[in-house]
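Field: COMPLEX_INPUT
Field: COMPONENT_COUNT = two
Field: RESIDUE_TOTAL = 584
Field: MODE = joint
Values follow.
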Amino acid sequence: MMHNESITEQLHSLTIGKYSSKELTENYIHRIKQLKHLNCFISVLEESALQTAADADQARYKGKVGPLTGIPIAHKDIFCTKNIATTAGSQMLHNYIAPFDATVVIKIAAAGAITIGKTNMDEFAMGSSNETSYYGAVQNPWDTDRVPGGSSGGSAAAVAAGLCSAATGTDTGGSIRQPSAHCGITGLKPTYGRISRWGMIAFASSLDQAGPMTRTAEDAALLLALMAGGDPKDSTCIRDDVPNYLEYLNTTLEGARIGVCDDFFADGLEAKSEEVIQDALKIFEQLGATTKSVKLPHIKYSVPAYYVIAPAEASTNLSRYDGVRFGYRCKDPENLNDMFKRSRSEGFGDEVKRRIMTGAFTLSTGYYDAYYRKAQQIRRLIKNDFHQAFNEVDFLIGPTAPQPAFMLGEKTESHIDMYLQDIYTIAANLAGLPAMSIPIGFSSKLPVGLQLIGNYLAEGTILSAAHQYQKRTDWHKCFPMMTTSESQR
Amino acid sequence: MKIDNEIVENIAELTQLEIAQEELSVIGDKMSEVLALVEEMQAVDTSGIEPVSNPLDVTQTLRPDIVTSEDNREIYQSFAPETRNGLYLVPKVID
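Field: COMPLEX_OUTPUT
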């Protein structure tokens, strides 16, 4: 069926005329309506998507074909889209119509893709369950009582449920990889700076990175090649040439050295998830790779360092929301200060406010050295640990999340429990390394993800390893059984 | 470190957030929990370690100093809460 095909398969079908882009888009729109209860989308762009699809069919007929012509893609609602609401999952931006397109949006559209909608997310990407969204929680397509993960939960659930061909996401501490694991899809966070952050609403600027969320590693390679590259509008963006990642895919795993860190398998990792990961490791060995135990002595300090750095940067980034130029403004402010305070207090959700305040505290006079500077130094030690490890191995493998998707509401009371969901993913953000999650099996009928972490700009290495694994296995082809919104009533 | 009501009030002022009196201790407790979590860092000797602010250890690059932005005032003000004659309106500051 067209909705659970990969982009590569869909491009082939479009080329041979098996179906048109209009039919593909109509099918997705129909499914989005049928599965409305999943709450994957904040905006569905039915009219413009169908128009772009018709145009894409015309272009294809005339032989004007780009690498994504006629493929419906969803954007996380953190990417600015011109003349379309861009909310970042917050009430603060409920009325914000972006006046420009993010670089990622421009690049994907230039390749011929159709923007089918904007996906739900944790408010300002702060969360690991999609439950902090002002627009409501997203349901996991594999079990609708469970979370899809977060913060790119809408994107992950939409891809998993067959509501779009692929989606974009952003990852500050695991926000692409953890929901990808929970929803059984492939998600890649590239090297920090590989993809432009222009037009991507900022959370923690030294950690934020965009990436593709897809059905296969091959699709992720295709999208990354289109999304990556220097951008004069983002001075932290890497200007190095973008390799042809698709060419990397057929590199065999013969002789590849895989690092396994014991800390990744410490207490807290669910037993069945560990078993599934060990099974996956055996497949990598059968494909010709060797595994080696590596030490990352400071990795256990990733979560503490992250929960200083990310809130500190967030407190600065989110100071721009003041009710003056755009976004939410409180009703009948008494004076300027009242307007600032009430607009921010009413416009932001609890988790966002908590992080802003924690961040401001760690940056305040008398505490800066003990918290912020200390965290930045730990960040150096974590970076050095990886540097050391990559002298011995080509990439690292471990779990993406400590357990499969948890129940909606299960962790909303304990924010610390929620923070620990990102225990395996945060280190790659602190070090700025590329990392991805691929589906490798199930624990109690819920998908389990495997994380691959590569060296700087070695996206090709982990993408090819993932692709080789996916050529040998079928986990990425598993599709959830779902009931329609109608039958749920 | 324990975050008491006084600190919460001070931080709320710095971050321009309004916190109800009964919420102060709730937020203080939650912040204290986060600080207890990050306290683990103190076990590491970091003397002489260079802090990381950009994971790639690069400084930001500069582009040629030429105007590239267009004048989009009307578009930008179209979604502003309140404007008049091309200006953003806020409550009266000076009587």
